[in-house]
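JOB MANIFEST
job_type = single_chain_structure
chain_count = 1
residues = 425
[input]
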Amino acid sequence: MQQPPPATLPPLIAPAPVVAPAPAITSNSTPTTYPVEIFEKNGDEWEQRQSDLRTYLATNSDAPCFVFAKFKSHKIAGTEPGRPEIRQALQTFYGLPTLIWTQSCWGAKSYYGCRDDKSRRHNTWFQFDFKGIPHGPYNPAQPCFTHEYHQPLCFTTWSRCGRKSIFCLSFPAQMIRGLKATLKAGDDDCNNILYDPYCFHQLIIQNVMQITDYCIWRETGDVLRILDWSLNSRLNAFTFKEYRQLKYNINEGVEMLNDIIVVLEKMMQRQSSRAEKIINAAPEERLAFTQVSDMLNFQHELAQVFKSKVATLCSDSENYSTWAFYAVTSMNSANGYINLQLTSFFLPAILISALFSTNFFYYDTLSNNWSLTKKFWIYWTVLVPTILITILFAFYKFRIMGRSRIWMNEMKVQKERLKALIRRS
């Protein structure tokens, strides 16, 4: 007899249902734009036009060009869409190292780097911070404590027979206007871009120095001058908060100038070594090297002068702090001396009056009322004359003692003069 086949048990885990593949997600969003303002040299004139950074990086123009970014730096350093692509394009166009995109590099106060490629193209990248104050109506009696922090970032690429470009990121509007005015002037400093890549750096530092000079005098120099006037005129022109902000601005200015000086020294060293390696340079090229080197040296000396001036202002502010400390101490001592004198004037009379009448008030049991004692007049008849006599005695004593001190000092001077005459004889 044939046995039936065993019944098949249901599986413990049900098989996963077959799901159709999801359709590909297509994005209809427009790509991120990077608007830039291009200032390009065309013959003897500089032409201005609006463009996109991607479009510019795809061109291969040999004309000297300033590219001013009209977008914030976080679009490159942050998490914006298309960030890796634009980074790679900038890195290829300006010959940048990969480390330029690290957070430590973007958060640094100042740095400078450069390298030459096989085609003798010179690429540089540098950054430093400085302060500026908004331009507006200037009132010396109301100093400006409002300042703006700027941290410009520059990428440059330069070749004698190739492209000559500088990419300017996070530039303040005031600095862009200054650079445009300098370029439109068309002097020799601008024409040297054709022969020396560090002419870019010279023009950038020149405008930074102008903003720094304006900031130093508006934010610190004039403030200390007004403070000096207020101290001499016994007027309280500033509060403690404003004075603390002034000292902070001065110390911060010294740190920023130190960073600019360090970057300048590296630029000068690299420009000098590069000029020495070029053999058989044309006369106009040698002249450009000399002019750029001279201007960088002058800007370095000017930065040292700014630093010295800010250090002097810092010393002046410390002197004002010392003066204020001694002024408060002397005022406190004077107040204590006045309290001591008043106590000495009133204490003898009060003690003598207390001997005659210790009870100023008494309670009348018949009328159930408080009233002054009948001999309260003794207090006034003793108090007033004693106070007047004490004041006159103290005044007379101080006057006599002061005259006696002057007389003793004159006697000492005469005695020393007599000793000197005896020694000579």
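[summary]
The chain has ten helices and eleven strands.
Residues 1-29 have pLDDT under 50 and may be disordered.
exit_status = 0
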